[in-house]
Write a structure and sequence with these properties.
The protein is an alpha/beta fold. It has a seven-stranded mixed sheet, sandwiched between helices. Strands 1, 6, 7, 8 and 9 form a five-stranded antiparallel sheet that branches. The chain has a three-stranded antiparallel sheet with strand order 13-12-14.
């Protein structure tokens, strides 16, 4: 893939970072997510909340039960991976008009269809049939949507593109085009001069597309996120991160197609997009979200079951309930999974 990118730049000039990210992650033949094995999991490149504990999906289903207003509502999970979220989710809340997963990876689609009976798997939200009401779940998805990179200067916005310096891929600066400059003025107005930030234009478009598609939409997005001022205080090397085999830190330009490429979701951008659409946005951390849905009561129940199993001499049962409690607590830890941001978006039109 690296040589293909070098050849493209040689013929067309520096590549926008969102185009580079899109090729690296989603190229049909060599993309990190679209080709090869399913990535999440303890044996994969990174671990997400559903792999830590099935209680993540079970408790999330309680939110879905509370927000849906009709038995005709459909359930859509975007970025379903191996089905580690959806399977326990449906154990807790099984009755839906239909259940859909959106996954670019054909291998992931095959995996989840085999694991979760009755689910329908497609490659894009546009392939999900229209429905009057939809409950949509997206866990650690928006951070992988291709993004552009920008810097505010005294002379205006500058875009950082992927070019070639001394025969190697490197970021190069070019004046931002007019449309990108207007987007930055609207969504990154709080950015100070001299700071590189992700211009998450595709994320905004994705949110609008989902909300437009369903007359009534209940969207739960969970990701690591921060506002513009917080992101502006980070080192440039922390704006774009990579993951491979449970480790981070590799330069995103070093091995295209071989690592996850991710950016923190900008809370200010999400808020601006949702409010402009006329939707309602609530944000809270994952710890507060899960606790508000009864996570503490689940922990108390698991501790009680562990004690009962111990009193009955059921060692394996005692260990199982204790292990479930440990895993659920991991989802509430701050720092850690508990610090993830939960975006609850409601829209009716």
């Amino acid at each position: 893939m690296k040589q293909r990118i070098l050849d493209h730049i040689a013929g067309h000039g520096p590549m926008r970072f969102d185009e580079y990210m899109d090729v690296c992650l989603y190229d049909p033949e060599d993309g990190f997510f679209s080709a090869g094995a399913v990535r999440p999991g303890t044996g994969g490149d990174f671990v997400t909340s559903p792999e830590v504990s099935p209680w993540f999906g079970r408790i999330l289903a309680r939110w879905a039960r509370a927000v849906r207003s009709s038995d005709d509502a459909i359930l859509v999970e975007v970025g379903a991976g191996s089905g580690s979220l959806l399977a326990p989710f449906l154990d807790e809340e099984p009755t839906w008009s239909s259940v859909w997963v959106v996954e670019l990876s054909s291998e992931a689609r095959s995996t989840i269809v085999g694991r979760v009976p009755g689910v329908k798997a497609v490659a894009s939200v546009e392939a999900v049939p229209l429905s009057a009401e939809a409950v949509i779940v997206a866990n650690e998805v928006l951070d992988n949507l291709p993004t552009r990179l920008v810097e505010r200067t005294d002379g205006g916005w500058v875009e950082q593109r992927v070019g070639v310096v001394e025969a190697e891929l490197s970021l190069v600066r070019q004046p931002a085009d007019e449309d990108l400059g207007h987007w930055c003025d609207r969504h990154l107005s709080r950015a100070p001069t001299g700071v590189v930030l992700a211009a998450q234009t595709a994320m905004g478009e994705w949110i609008v597309d989902v909300l437009t598609r369903f007359p009534t939409a209940h969207l739960c997005v969970i990701d690591y996120a921060a506002d513009t001022q917080t992101l502006a205080q980070r080192r440039r090397s922390d704006i774009v991160r990579t993951y491979h085999r449970q480790r981070s830190g590799e330069d995103a330009l070093e091995r295209p197609g071989k690592t996850d490429i991710t950016v923190d979701v900008n809370i200010d951008v999400v808020r601006t997009v949702v409010e402009a659409f006329g939707g309602r946005l609530t944000t809270l951390d994952q710890r507060s979200f899960l606790t508000g849905l009864g996570a503490d009561e689940v922990l108390t129940d698991l501790a009680g079951r562990s004690r009962e199993a111990a009193q009955a001499g059921d060692v394996m049962g005692q260990l199982r309930f204790r292990s479930e409690g440990v895993d659920l607590r991991a989802l509430l830890e701050v720092p850690g999974f508990g610090a993830f941001t939960v975006f609850l978006i409601e829209s009716s039109h």
